[in-house]
Amino acid sequence: MREQLDLLKEEALNRVKNVQSEKELQDIRVAYLGKKGPITEVLRGMGKLSAEERPVIGALANVVRDEIKDAINQKSVLLEQKALEDQLGMETIDVTLPGRPVPIGTTHPLSAVVGEIEEIFLGLGFSIAEGPEIETDYYNFEALNLPKDHPARDMQDSFYITEELLLRTQTSPVQARTMEKHQGKGPVKVIVPGKVFRRDDDDATHSHQFMQTEGLYVDKDVRMSDLKGVLESFAKQFFGKERNIRLRPSFFPFTEPSVEIDVSCGICSGNGCRVCKQSGWIEVLGAGMVHPRVLEMSGFDPKEYSGFAFGMGVERLAMLKYDIDDIRQFYTNDLRFLNQFKTL
């Protein structure tokens, strides 16, 4: 039986040595190490051996089985390596070929416009203030001189959460909060960019959600001429040096006096065209001197301090600057539209 085991080992090792594929190797594994293999048969016949021979033959059978198993495992590793080398040999890679372009995102036009507005006003000495989009009734209305019966407080215009909480309808509440933090001491010179929400039917020029940038400057001896100078500087930097502005009387509850700001039409240079409705001017924002009542409610003495405030719609500015005719384009995530702004 010893000779039989030696012959089995030599035969199995030779077959493993000459095998060329993983399938052949698995066949050898089953043939020699399986339940019906010759080594198993030898072990089953050990009952016929004497008590002295059984442990010797049993130990030898285990050694033979382990050597065959180790040879098969080593051969399997070599076959895997060879298969990988053959595959790499067949696959040629030209490292000089250009890589596949990876598509990258673009700056959203509204983000670009907000960034440009911020840069201009930072250069004029303003800082940037932020505030909550869910506001209290007090800061959204009362602190801005909008009494309880004002039309702007109607449910049709505002998204109320509770009787005292709503989605802010303007970024002006941040102005009131900022003035309160200064505790009646100036100067206060901030712009407030952010989202606002109003109950409105979406169409080409209206949206229930849009962006505003408001500005506030409160200090001693602030005049309307200061307001005009700041906004004229902004218009020339944003729209072009050749553009001019004009102020028209208007009304806002939180400013007195109040004005609408128009910028000269860039299409017709102020001569009149379809875009400006033959007027030569395009309305861009509202502004005015901060109402004394608003100053007083925020802790400032209106006899000592004065100020101006203005508010502009970011979408409107972007539509005018980039000749966009539908505000909904900003919110549809249409790549055909957004890819036009890759250079921003």
From TrEMBL:
<dbReference type="InterPro" id="IPR010978">
    <property type="entry name" value="tRNA-bd_arm"/>
</dbReference>
<dbReference type="InterPro" id="IPR002319">
    <property type="entry name" value="Phenylalanyl-tRNA_Synthase"/>
</dbReference>
<dbReference type="Pfam" id="PF02912">
    <property type="entry name" value="Phe_tRNA-synt_N"/>
</dbReference>
<protein>
    <recommendedName>
        <fullName>Phenylalanine--tRNA ligase alpha subunit</fullName>
        <ecNumber>6.1.1.20</ecNumber>
    </recommendedName>
</protein>
<feature type="domain" description="Aminoacyl-transfer RNA synthetases class-II family profile">
    <location>
        <begin position="111"/>
        <end position="320"/>
    </location>
</feature>
<dbReference type="InterPro" id="IPR045864">
    <property type="entry name" value="aa-tRNA-synth_II/BPL/LPL"/>
</dbReference>
<keyword id="KW-0648">Protein biosynthesis</keyword>
<dbReference type="InterPro" id="IPR004529">
    <property type="entry name" value="Phe-tRNA-synth_IIc_asu"/>
</dbReference>
<dbReference type="InterPro" id="IPR004188">
    <property type="entry name" value="Phe-tRNA_ligase_II_N"/>
</dbReference>
<comment type="similarity">
    <text>Belongs to the class-II aminoacyl-tRNA synthetase family. Phe-tRNA synthetase alpha subunit type 1 subfamily.</text>
</comment>
<keyword id="KW-0436">Ligase</keyword>
<keyword id="KW-0030">Aminoacyl-tRNA synthetase</keyword>
<dbReference type="GO" id="GO:0004826">
    <property type="term" value="F:phenylalanine-tRNA ligase activity"/>
</dbReference>
<feature type="binding site">
    <location>
        <position position="256"/>
    </location>
    <ligand>
        <name>Mg(2+)</name>
    </ligand>
</feature>
<dbReference type="InterPro" id="IPR022911">
    <property type="entry name" value="Phe_tRNA_ligase_alpha1_bac"/>
</dbReference>
<dbReference type="Pfam" id="PF01409">
    <property type="entry name" value="tRNA-synt_2d"/>
</dbReference>
<keyword id="KW-0547">Nucleotide-binding</keyword>
<keyword id="KW-0963">Cytoplasm</keyword>
<keyword id="KW-0067">ATP-binding</keyword>
<comment type="subunit">
    <text>Tetramer of two alpha and two beta subunits.</text>
</comment>
<keyword id="KW-0479">Metal-binding</keyword>
<keyword id="KW-0460">Magnesium</keyword>
<dbReference type="InterPro" id="IPR006195">
    <property type="entry name" value="aa-tRNA-synth_II"/>
</dbReference>
